[in-house]
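User: Fold this, then the next.

Assistant: Folding the first:
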Amino acid sequence: MEAGYNDGIVAPSSEKGAMVSYKLTRSSRKTLAIYVRDGYVDVRAPLRMPKADIDRFVLSKEKWISEKLAKSTEQLARRESFALSYGDSVIYRGKEYPITQRQGDLVGFDDASFYIPPGLSCEEIKYACIQIYKLLAKRDLTTKTYELSKRMSVAPYNVRINSAKSRWGSCSTKKSLNYSWRLIMADDEVIDYVVAHELAHITEPNHSPRFWALVEAVFPDYNERKAKLVELQTRLGAEDWE
């Protein structure tokens, strides 16, 4: 947990005369770390680490930071321009489906399209699609969880859908499984991997070799499935689903 203080820093590069601007957060952590998000650079550092040491570390990563910033800035621009209209496609369980108009006040999915009322703005269309996603996620992820739980001989207490952006799923100490509604965009192989991952946590609440052995027993190709999940994460990083 980062519970220190923040201050803005500009560190000059003595070799190239370049400037690396970043926000510094000090806390009780023991190591230095750099994060590049939304066009900004965040540096996390121990409370008593000398500023000069932090600057040297940042400047030593100047090339890496520049590359990450370029990608982050491009991604941010794409996300800010993200908008949905009638006729556009959205992804559900790895397949693209069109957004169609249907008279009335209902929104839903009919196995061929995401249907919504006519005359909605881009923001309203996005909101309607999110509501459909949440309904589909609750239905499909609950079904998949209980089907896989039988194969893995575990008994989840409950399945909940949330709006988490940085976690696809989680398992509480009370054996309640939580999934981000965004997971329903992934294809079935990826969804099944995430479900198995969380179910394995009922038995092993960690990421020990025993935990991964449980996952591998169900899906020997789990590493390939994890790679596909990263691809989806990259795509969603350029889309504004807030």
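Now the next one, as you asked:
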Amino acid sequence: MSFARLSWGHWLAAGAALALLLIMAMDWYGTAFSDSLRRDEGLVSTEGQLSGETGRELAEQIPPAAELGERNAWQAYAGFDTVTTVRSGAPLGLLALGLLTLGAARAMREEQGSGPAGARSAPRAERARRPVA
């Protein structure tokens, strides 16, 4: 099989499928508490005289505590509630799924001959079948 045979619909579907696989590992949902911990994580100082041992301990303890309230596509729990926040992974996953569907539909139309690539190749196929006089 040659990759030159693939149409842009095939490439779009393949790229979107790969993107969706990577996006599914991103955080999709979280809680308001984990969001506040992530904000606080950037505020903790671990350098200088003012940070001390407390600052270093907080810098070590905040990320695992925030991670407890975050979920990706494989860990997502059922339903939304008042403490659930939607992260960037969910809309990106929806976008990648839409592009995957668009690419697959385009590739299928071209394979069946109703798309632009199939329309150009159909007259050539008919000429090949006609008897030469």
